[in-house]
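User: Structure tokens for this complex, please. No commentary.
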Amino acid sequence: MNPHRKLVLDKITEILAATPDDYEDRLTKMIDAADQVFVGGQGRSGLVTKFFVMRLMHAGYKAFALGETVTPAIRAGDLFIVISGSGETGSLITNAKKAKEIGAKVVLITAKSSSTIGDIADEVLQIGTDSSYQKVFGLPMGTMFELSALIFLEAQISHVIHEKNIPEEEMRSRHAVLE
Amino acid sequence: MNPHRKLVLDKITEILAATPDDYEDRLTKMIDAADQVFVGGQGRSGLVTKFFVMRLMHAGYKAFALGETVTPAIRAGDLFIVISGSGETGSLITNAKKAKEIGAKVVLITAKSSSTIGDIADEVLQIGTDSSYQKVFGLPMGTMFELSALIFLEAQISHVIHEKNIPEEEMRSRHAVLE
Amino acid sequence: MNPHRKLVLDKITEILAATPDDYEDRLTKMIDAADQVFVGGQGRSGLVTKFFVMRLMHAGYKAFALGETVTPAIRAGDLFIVISGSGETGSLITNAKKAKEIGAKVVLITAKSSSTIGDIADEVLQIGTDSSYQKVFGLPMGTMFELSALIFLEAQISHVIHEKNIPEEEMRSRHAVLE
Amino acid sequence: MNPHRKLVLDKITEILAATPDDYEDRLTKMIDAADQVFVGGQGRSGLVTKFFVMRLMHAGYKAFALGETVTPAIRAGDLFIVISGSGETGSLITNAKKAKEIGAKVVLITAKSSSTIGDIADEVLQIGTDSSYQKVFGLPMGTMFELSALIFLEAQISHVIHEKNIPEEEMRSRHAVLE
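Assistant:
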């Protein structure tokens, strides 16, 4: 295989192998317990957010990405999933505090074992360990975390599909028809 | 008043004065008859779309802007509102055809009395008349249509608020809390 | 004219009549003095941001809306235009502070004579006066500010076009061709 | 490793192992030969687009995602990269034709060996082979293509970084500072 593809895939594989195997099960329970699910991230983590929210919607959940036109008010009983490698993104700190005050649950998906948002959150799902993210030339800035978080969340969708036995046709029927 | 502000406001006022006064009432009936409302536009008309969809959501409607993460499949019984000055935007032609095939209603908000999307649509709401859009230096490209369509749709929201007597506090309670 | 359209237009007209006439000239000088222009707002003020940035790009400026994919780093010598009715939007306070630290200029477009971002900014352009924004049934939440700020910024574009005598054809040649 | 993570990673690995190893080199030559690079996709392929464009910008290219505020006109000498699993996305067919007419190059990244956009494009980079995309329960709709295309494009960035020896610090200096 092309060495750059191998570099990317090996790193994601190493990080996800170092990530507790029960996260998909725990996150499913949190999502199922919530009335509505809000997911927020900045920059490329914001794109990860949208990858995940679209599939949650296809799977039948009431899910929203922060900052979109129809994203409603969060309420007590909802879940706010924060995607932040550092756990220190300014606007997400503010949002996590607001969500807690309102009575929503907050879960942080992050690269760090300890952070400001981690202290606010009800649950912290650390992807890999603190030593997973040594600099690798060719995988600049947050690349390793963003891709690992994305693949974890795709696995999360697979977990939900298998657990609830959701036919692809049912998901497809919810998919946007208008481009 | 600053002459540039006057230029913009005078032109919008002229166009909206030349627009049939019953449009807000007609559009309200179409929206109320629909299960879900989809709104689509390209470029700055796409921004007009989002201005409107957010307030529809605040007013309690199930409304979606095309192209956002949680926008679901359109179905028979839904309404597709197209915002297109020319009525000839390529992707919106395709979308209007799909919406009709599925059994949704299509309404076009446009600057032109006749167009491809106009021929597909169940209803055409022409903003102003064909002679409203002579070139004005300082209001380039689609400016006159985009702003007039926006103010018409803000008036549409005011119409809905008055007709249904929706308290501002109720709308505010649906507004996004997380930034 | 339909009374709801009149309600919206009269309110915008009243607010812009109460707004100093030299703002377009002052803002043009700030934009012309900057290497790059960044514009940020939340919610519907974020849509106003994009209306304005697209026309700045058409007019030949290096302009960016916050949060988009290709928005680069702000640097000393750049201008950050904040659109915030309250002047208290959390993430924009953080951004305004960062911009100042880096050595960029900050200008606030707002509904309030005094605010946290106003205290940080080099210039405050208050749209209307503190008494302009009494509640009006039918114009919920930030509607009056958002529309008045938008029309002011469209007038700003008209000012720039007239001052620099920019042909529409030149602006159109920069407009996106791919939908 | 959690079986769902393994399912996702094994499938991507299988697809990228079946993808010609010289694609990164070929795509680099196309990007380097272009004045400006435009990248377009719909739905989750649109998110892949933005992942890639942001890193191209960090690496010093003039790159744009379709549909964003500051995306300018495409011109002769530019490159249009289309990301479409089916190669049949309606608006992207229209865009690919426009780009060719203007004299830009078009390259398609796709799951199919043959398609409408493939017929228009100067180059087709098929990710995997036609037999790579058998249905897998848990990886609904376009998941396999979207993730494989994304990892390929991250490898593409690694290739560019290594070939041009771009320091991470240089990329970071271009990264957005304002959230």
